[in-house]
Amino acid sequence: MTREEILAQLVAFPSVVGRPNGDIVDWIRSWLAGHGVIAHVLPGPEGDRANLFATIGVPDRPGLVLSGHMDVVPAAEPDWATDPFRLHADGDRLLGRGTSDMKGFLAAVLAAVPRLAGQDLARPVHLAFSYDEEAGCRGVPHLIARLGELCAPPACAVIGEPSGLRAILAHKGKAAARITVQGRSGHSSRPDLGLNAIHGMASVLSAAVAAAEAATRGPHHPSFAPPYSTIQVGTLTGGHALNVIPALCTAEIEARAIAGQSAAALLAPVRDALAALDRQGFATAWEPLSDYPALALPRSAPIATLLAEVAGHEPLAAVSYGTEAGLYQAAGIDAIVCGPGDIARAHKANEFITRGELADCEDMIVALASRFAA
To answer: Quick one: DSSP state of residue 314?
Structure first.
């Protein structure tokens, strides 16, 4: 099966984030078994989603992890020119949801398996495919927690997010939460008898704005754009009618932190403001949506040097979006981001990857694994 045929199979699974993913996991497991590679299916606590982990070579030596996520964002954009869950060729472009982010990388890895399995690798190559990355990297922590049962501590991990096959050394961390303020409804002519949840939320939003402004003053890291941590409120809902006191208000907030700062800690003033509402008679809730650390890999790290030589490009110092790489690094594994496609095409209608990008990625994986295991 060619890499393009593998990609077509992967795209055909509507493995949208937050939904069961048994079909795509079973297909990958079966495909690997057909090439003599045993895959471990690792169910998550949700019960209907699973990570997948497989090893090529001897698992008791420090190996190379090739990491990617199987989930994709929904394809609800109205301007898709084709069925987003059916691979469509348009010249050199291959269109479909997840082609760049990041089933293209998965297809290149799987296409490389027969070539890797045919080698006598001195050190193993691990395939680590996760679920619900698009919901804040929720699946991969469960996979990382079980690595000790499956293999020797890995030496390094390559996370194949779309980067134009240029390695990325650092990215920001992220924490996000959904905030709920519950008040008491009533007629707007008697606000003294109600408790306005939107008014209550206003103090929380003020704390968020103040924290966002404080973050701009530093610390700074010149590799990032912008060069400081950020906080923003992304959604706000509440109320039913102008003449009704709103009993409920909900907001979603995120912090993105440069290396050396905790994204969750940046949100502490917002949590404090929310807690103050409890003392005023409101009922409040703080629901974490995601929390993953920043990545900061030294340029001198062996995997950075090796990838630069194999890919033929100097690594990028940093990007502002996040990946699972920070979680691998937090577990003591040198991690770096490098994959085919372009992040600018992700999460948009008519997402695509080119045939050339797929071919180059497969060749890079084989060369990287061969040189790593030498």
So the answer is: P
